Task: inverse folding
């Protein structure tokens, strides 16, 4: 069952091809749109009027506020030190790692192929396609690169249009 009964899907939200997604334990707000081949894990909150493009992965601990755009193939992570085993060779369990939260603030945009580590992406910020975000992104900043660095602003300054 690609959309689990545990999903809180607003009646006005749209999931394209519901048989080709994996949604479980998440909340999706009004008028948000979820593309094909998207996985959204438990404890994810997606606000209203968001657009989540195909092939994206949103892991537990992510909060996406209203009017956020997530491009194709965006990957979120929630662990700064992922491992399959502990130092003693025993298999890792949920008790062996700390889930770190991620927040994507209102009206932010994340370009296709970006990787987002546990950070806060500020309101109105723009993450360039393919960027690897390892640090918080200030509101209205444009970040690009690996690792992502501030390269501009989404807010025009006086004189930019003259």
Result:
């Amino acid at each position: 069952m690609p959309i689990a009964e545990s999903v809180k899907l607003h009646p006005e939200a749209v999931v394209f091809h519901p048989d080709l997604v994996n949604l479980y334990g998440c909340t999706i707000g009004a008028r948000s749109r979820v593309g094909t081949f998207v996985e959204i894990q438990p404890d994810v909150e997606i606000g209203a009027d968001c657009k989540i493009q195909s092939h994206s992965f949103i892991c537990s601990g992510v909060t996406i506020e209203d009017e956020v755009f997530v491009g194709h193939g965006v990957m979120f992570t929630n662990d700064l030190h992922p491992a399959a085993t502990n130092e003693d060779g025993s298999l890792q369990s949920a008790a062996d790692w700390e889930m770190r939260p991620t927040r994507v603030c209102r009206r932010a945009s994340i370009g296709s192929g970006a990787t987002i580590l546990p950070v806060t992406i500020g309101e109105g910020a723009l993450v360039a396609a393919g960027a690897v975000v390892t640090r918080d992104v200030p509101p209205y900043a444009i970040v690009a690169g690996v690792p992502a660095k501030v390269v501009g602003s989404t807010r025009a300054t006086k004189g930019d249009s003259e």
User: Anything to note?
Assistant: The chain has a mean pLDDT of 93. Residues 31 and 115 are 25 Å apart (CA to CA). The radius of gyration is 17 Å.
